[in-house]
Amino acid sequence: MRETIFALSSGGLPSGVAVIRLSGPDVRTALNDLVGFVPEPRKAVLRTMKAEDGTVLDRGLILFFEGPYSFTGEDCAELQLHGGVAVVKSVLEALGGRENFRAADAGEFTKRGFLNGKFDLTGAEALADLISAETEAQRRFALANGDERHRQLYAGWRRSLIHAQAMIAAELDFSDEEDVPGSVADAIWQELSALQSEIEEHAGGYRDAEIVRDGFRVVILGAPNAGKSSLMNALAKRDIAIVTEEAGTTRDILETALDIGGVKVILTDTAGIRENPGRIEAIGIDRAIARAGDADLILLLEDVTEPRSVPHPQGVRLLRIANKIDLLDERLVAEAYDLAISTVSGEGINELLVRIGDLTEGSKKRALDILPFRERHVGLLMEASRHIDRAFGQGAVGLELQAEELRLAAIALGRIAGEIDVEDLLDTIFSQFCIGK
Ligand SMILES: Nc1nc2c(ncn2[C@@H]2O[C@H](COP(=O)(O)OP(=O)(O)OP(=O)(O)O)[C@@H](O)[C@H]2O)c(=O)[nH]1
Ligand SMILES: [K+]
Ligand SMILES: [Mg+2]
């Protein structure tokens, strides 16, 4: 028999209100025991809750949701209690003492919802993203992704693949193998080729999804004392990094998250790059260069009064920035720089923020498009594309093999939204949720 699960679904205690959520076959009996009856579905009632021995636990709002019209698709209830540590503990203990009741695992409510067909797998993943969203772009992206739009897109592609398979099967049935005239094949192969391009283009959008979900990575690079840590603090508007006049102050990677125009930006301060560093500093320099190689943008900072160029990774977008312009008598900053700033006077800092914001604009706009938003999605899309490739590779003689490859491509697409055997994936996906969701 299926167990009834429960958890504190609201955040940390103490809080104004704490919400305990229950789901499963024994929710009704639990409510009966706690408050003496089962409330009408979706109508809040204020009642005193009592333990089995009659002790009063708390007075609060009770909501009952009758399956399948609930988040999990099962009978559910929410107990809205006073958000005190002892109050919540007493109710959780009372529930835990009941037969066939247990505390929910992380993501278990959502997993039950998925298994009961309340939403597809991309919908569940979007829900996880919504809960962890910190910026406006993350929130909007997650909300849009919860709309079954991926499932619909992939279902359309699967229909095309199944249609192509059917046409090939028809050809197998009705042609005598030697002289197949131009036949259905040409049109079908054109469509398949267009579909494959569409799949790959869609997969290519992952980079923008990553920027919106995980952040746009900006790394500050430069010689010692260029003012990198000062810039980090100026951009973050607080003292995160230690600043001193001593060259080699920063020795390790230092990271902070900013919200620039609604997009998460991960800003990294690094050790100054120079020849013949000390041992610890040398490790810091290696890390700086490695991190810069993975960045979306490098801010290459130079002290204008003492310009020193440093080696930097190639192939990463770069902004050359002149710092300490407050020390110049005349504002004669060489054209070699994209921007001139002073972390002391604040000059140019806003312009730099605007420049960074502009660079994320494209990804932010694309968050309204349907993009794959997990590596899992990209992996399955590329798998589908490879099967279509192999179908092409079979040549006309291998019609049966072609049809088989198309079937496998359709299966890969079906797995993204969880419409086809995903049992092996479920634990990985749902364990990323917090308890109570
Ligand atoms: N006048 C002036 N001084 C600055 C400016 N930016 C930084 N400084 C000074 O330059 C010195 C070095 O600044 P940091 O921010 O520590 O430089 P850094 O690049 O992080 O140095 P390392 O971590 O040692 O590589 C400090 O004394 C800062 O106060 C600026 O815009 N104008
Ligand atoms: K320094
Ligand atoms: Mg520093």
Describe the fold and architecture.
44% of the residues lie in helices and 18% in strands. With 437 residues, it is of the alpha/beta class. It folds into 3 domains: 101 residues, Gyrase A, domain 2 (2-Layer Sandwich), CATH 3.30.1360; 116 residues, tRNA modification GTPase MnmE domain 2 (Four Helix Bundle (Hemerythrin (Met), subunit A)); 150 residues, 3-Layer(aba) Sandwich (Rossmann fold). A hairpin with a 5-residue loop joins strand 3 and strand 4. Helix 4 packs antiparallel against helix 5 and helix 7 packs antiparallel against helix 12. The mean pLDDT is 92. The structure holds guanosine-5'-triphosphate, potassium ion and magnesium ion. The site of potassium ion has 5 residues, from loops. The site of magnesium ion has 6 residues, from helix 9.
In total, the number of strands is 12
Chain-averaged pLDDT:
92
Low-pLDDT parts are: none
Radius of gyration: 29 Å
The main β sheet shows up as:
6 strands, mixed
